[in-house]
Amino acid sequence: MKNELTPVGAFGPQDTTDADIMAAQIKLWEFLGRRVHSYTTGDSSSVRIETAQELLNSACYVLGIDLGNPSALKAILDWDLDRRFEDIIKIIEGEIQTAKRLWQAACLSVPQIENISLSTTLHSIGSFPKRYHYRYFAHVIPCDIDYQLCHPVSEALLGVDYIIEYLHHILIEQDFLCRFDPALCIRLLDAYCPDYKGQLINLFEPIATNAIGLAFIGSDTLKLDVSSQECERIAVILKPMPKGQVINVLQSAAYFVCSTLEIHQPATRQYLRRMAEGLSLRIHAALSAGNLDGVFLSFK
Amino acid sequence: MEQNFSLVSIQIQIAAAMQELDACNELSIHFGLALTGQQMLRLTEQRFQALKSTGRIEFGEGVLKKLVIAFCDSPYITQSNYEETLSELQDIFYYFKSESGDTLSDDELIEAMKSVFDGKAQGSLEYLAGTALENLCRIIRGGGIDEYEGSPEDDYEE
After folding, report:
1. Residues of chain B neighbouring A49 (CB-CB closer than 8 A)
2. Would you say A221 and A260 are in contact if contact means Cβ atoms under 8 Å apart?
3. Distance (Å, whole) CA B33 – CA B14
4. Nearest-by-Cβ selection for B5 from A7, A43, A47
5. A194-252, pLDDT tens digit by residue?
6. pLDDT at residue B148, rounded to an integer
7. Sign of the CA dihedral with A134 first, then A140, A142, and A143 last
């Protein structure tokens, strides 16, 4: 006979005793009981297993305990779980305020490029503070996040941590886009995807790709249009280079783009550098197929 | 190890439930009702079976103590059917706790059960579970008990 709650993975490194494991399990069980009592406001002694599981996941996220990690045992035994929980809840409350500020900044820096998924995602994140029940479901992300980032947020991040990271990425991308003429951005996006307004595409990547390509051959980064001759020129230069060198030269071009656009924030420079690394893989594949037409785009 | 966690939780709860039921005997004995150690253990084990079959998990005080306190003065419960009735009431409780979508608190559900059991059901557990509580849950699912106007007894008793 056993309950169906499945909270604990590897619980206890080799050097722990059975008594330690038992003590940690009892302590965690009693703590979870208090979380459930708080959740039901004492009205119900029992909850659905799924609810208990979610409350446990949330509590572990708040406490920073990974039950699949052997170090969880020592943490559970050493910590005053209730006190730590309340301390971190205060930090989460501060993070929610940070998320609010980042969201406001993101809304104020939306580029003049229409894209439904970006609008609806930002709209949805706006209701995050109201919908985020951090005391009981801190690990949940109660938003519809459709807009695809150039660099997706790690799925290891949950709750408000995910939202903050997502907004950081959005801000970097939007700040970058706003440094270009919106009309040129729209012409490029139109070439990239005629339904760029309605499709779930990332706006940053095609713009940054062309900007890096233009910077690489010393053309005007801000014009965004990579002519077929320029595209051919890029291919001719890159084709004989080994992979590692392609990454290096593209990352240098990315830094040049940052300098041209007067982007000094390390996070943004790093973001573009990562993007250049990904771009090198696409270029390698495209060159194997013969040309870079699908990588660097010309205006229609 | 997850199994150990579950087993620990059950061990803790069995010990707590046995203590609680033992204390309940002091109250129920005034109505000619008492549970033996074996009966307490069986009821406690049945509690976990009921929880498992309804997909629930329980922390702290179980509901058995509350059921004993609520039902020990019922004219339809005697020493001969005490354990069996408590066992059935316990099953009914967890079943309808889930069926009501957790909208009823423990105390509200027990109050409803007691009201029907001593009233229209006249001690019939079949009537209690099969008719009255089904009706109550249907009302709750149809729009919530807060939106339902009328006497609670009407709800429970058709």
Report:
1. 55-57
2. yes
3. 21
4. A7
5. 999 999 999 999 999 999 999 999 999 999 999 999 999 999 999 999 989 999 999 99
6. 41
7. positive
In angstroms, rounded to a whole number, what is the distance separating the alpha carbons of residues A66 and A91? 19
- Given a contact cutoff of 8 angstroms between Cβ atoms, the answer to whether A5 and B59 are in contact is no
In tens, the pLDDT along A4-63 reads 444 444 455 556 788 888 888 889 988 999 999 999 998 999 999 999 999 999 999 999
8 Å CB contact between A161 and A96 = no
Within an 8 Å CB–CB cutoff, is residue A6 touching chain B? yes
> For position A6, what pLDDT does the model report?
46
Q: Give residue A11's pLDDT.
A: 54
Q: What pairs with residue B56 in β-bridges?
A: A48
Considering only CA atoms, give the Rg of chain B.
Answer: 16
Count of alpha carbons within 13 angstroms of residue B21, beta-carbon side: 28
Both structure tokens of A291: 């040309």
B contact set with A (CB within 8 A):
1-10, 12, 45, 48-49, 51-52, 55-63, 94, 97-98, 102, 105-107
- Which residues lie below 8 Å from residue A24, measured CB to CB, with a gap of 6+? A11, A12, A72, A73, A76, A77
- CA A209/CA A253 separation, integer angstroms: 10
Contact A180, A194 (CB under 8 A): no
Show the tokens assigned to A21: 């494991």
Supply the DSSP symbol for B150: S
Nearest CA in chain A to B99: A48
Candidates A21, A28, A36, A45, partner chain B, best to mutate (most B CBs within 10 A): A45
Q: Which amino acid is at A42?
A: G
- Kindly report the pTM of this predicted structure: 0.85
Q: At what angle do helices B133-141 and B82-99 cross, to 10 degrees?
A: 10
User: What gap in Å lies between CA B44 and CA A159, rounded to an integer?
Assistant: 38
Q: Is A33 on the interface with B (CB under 8 A)?
A: yes
Q: B57 has which bridge partners?
A: A47
Pair B1, A25: CB distance under 8 Å: no
Q: Where are the domains of chain A?
A: 18-79, 83-175, 179-300
- Helix, strand or coil for residue A116? helix
Bridge partners for A283 per DSSP: none
In one letter, which amino acid is B4?
Answer: N
A55 CA to chain B: closest CA distance, Å?
Answer: 12
The alpha carbon of residue A141 and the mean position of all alpha carbons in its chain are separated, in whole angstroms, by 12
Q: Are B41 and A46 in contact (CB under 8 A)?
A: no
